[in-house]
Specification:
With about 240 residues, the protein is of the alpha+beta class. Strands 1, 2, 3, 4, 5, 6, 7, 8 and 9 form a nine-stranded mixed β-sheet that branches. About 20% of the residues are buried.
Length: about 240
């Protein structure tokens, strides 16, 4: 009777050094590497999504006229012919009437504070002072707050206050009247209510430029119009700033 030869079971291949057998023929190291890659991919995708969402939510915009703030030394701007609101028009200190509007190429702008005793009589005019920073008086360096307190307590002007004005410097491109003034470099004093219209124009234009609705070029071309207004029962002329392009 022939003897059957016993067949030895096939030997298992030893895993490479540093590897251990896992389920379904995949080593633990291989599965770990795959899991790490997947985790990294998810993290990267999440980061990109968050960055994109943050960008959309913030909607940042660049102020198109920011580079013109104090582009000219305010002390030098102070030497220019000053335009301000008149009786339904725009006029200068010499009484020249520029009419209902002036179009400017804006070249600089800055804040200015007027410290007033709060009275319109002739005697009170000697107490008017100015400040470029709202903290110290031009010329003397005295504290604005201390000066206001002094003319209230010592001189009796209980309504003494400070108001922020905006001073624009620009080249006249056109005006309603006084055509001979075209191409002159002037400054325009905007009272608090008028200054707000400049801020509104600047914000609106900046947003539209940032969104590609308008070009940045031409943002410095502005139109200043004299309009009738009323506040606290008093009628006055307000200067309204809009774009001319």
């Amino acid at each position: 009777m022939a003897l059957q030869r016993a067949v030895a079971p096939a030997a298992k291949t030893a895993p490479a050094a540093g590897q251990f057998e896992g389920m379904e023929g995949t080593t633990t190291v291989e599965r770990s590497t795959t899991a790490q890659k997947a985790t990294a991919d998810v993290a990267a995708t999440t980061a990109i999504a968050k960055a994109s969402a943050s960008s959309v939510a913030a909607q940042p915009y660049t102020e198109v006229l920011a580079g013109l703030r104090c582009a000219i030394d305010p002390q030098n701007v102070g030497t220019l012919t000053r335009l301000k609101s008149g009786a339904g028009n725009i006029k200068d200190a010499d009484g020249v009437n520029y009419g209902s509007y002036v179009q400017l190429e804006l070249i600089s702008y800055h804040d200015s504070w007027t410290i007033s005793p709060g009275s319109d009589n002739d005697e009170s005019k000697e107490f008017v002072r100015y400040s470029l920073d709202g903290k110290t008086l031009d010329g003397t360096g005295e504290s604005v707050d201390e000066y206001i307190a002094k003319i209230r307590d010592v001189d009796g002007y209980e309504k003494a206050n400070k108001k922020r004005y905006l001073i624009l410097a620009g080249i006249i491109n056109d005006c309603d009247k006084a055509k001979e003034k075209i191409d002159s470099v002037v400054q325009v004093s905007l009272a608090p209510q008028s200054a707000k219209t400049f801020g509104d124009y600047h914000t609106q234009r900046s947003v539209k430029v940032s969104r590609g609705k308008l070009p940045k070029e031409g943002s410095q071309q502005i139109r200043i119009t004299a309009e009738g207004a009323s506040m606290n029962g008093k009628d006055f002329t307000k200067l309204v700033v809009t774009g001319s392009l």
